[in-house]
Amino acid sequence: MKELYDKKNISYYSHTRPELLKFLPKTFTSILDIGCAGGNFGQMLKELYKCEVWGVEPGENSAKIASTKLDKVYHGPFDNETDIPANKQFDCIFFNDVLEHLAQPEEALLLATKYLSPTGCIIASIPNIRFYPAIISLLRHKDFKYLDAGVMDKTHLRFFTKKSMIRLFEESNYIVKTVEGINRHTFKYLEILNFFLLKSIDDMHYPQYAIVATKNE
């Protein structure tokens, strides 16, 4: 699996994800970015909001780059071995296209509660397997083809729909506050079909969903 990550284009690790800024809580001072890649997203948060940003990144090269941009970066997976101080808490913890790369994403969400402040929230971006190109590949081409990036990224271990994303959080003891499709794609024939089906397949326009959740105390 490491070889697959090493072969990815450098742009894979450099996204800033400005579409996620709207989901930030009204007030916050500290952020934990799980899977922070090269740290560009966290750096943007620091510049815009003057907040403290820590990161966790399994890729050695990306972690080194991120450490020059963020307040603190841990190289390695986010698990019980991550050496974040036990008393450290964050107002917001990001999982930007991370949970689908984990064999047990619920374990990461459960661990995150340890570092989430009582009023804090989780913000996650998760690929949507019902995105129309993936469905067309299944129905028309009878194929489940992995790609270098996107919904069908060959490094994804788990696949989610909007419904199963919500279930993942609820079964991990969170309350889902927001579920919203992001980076909508327009496809004329899908728009027409969606209209006649009373918007019942509107979710197929979105390659990802943003989830905002809080701890279920």
From TrEMBL:
Domain of life, per UniProt, equals Bacteria
Q: Which molecular function GO terms apply here?
A: methyltransferase activity
| One GO term of the biological process aspect | methylation
Q: Give the coiled coil ranges.
A: none
Q: Which InterPro entries match?
A: SAM-dependent_MTases_sf
Matching Pfam families, A to Z?
Methyltransf_23
Q: What is the recorded name of this protein?
A: Class I SAM-dependent methyltransferase
Q: Which organism is it from?
A: Pedobacter changchengzhani
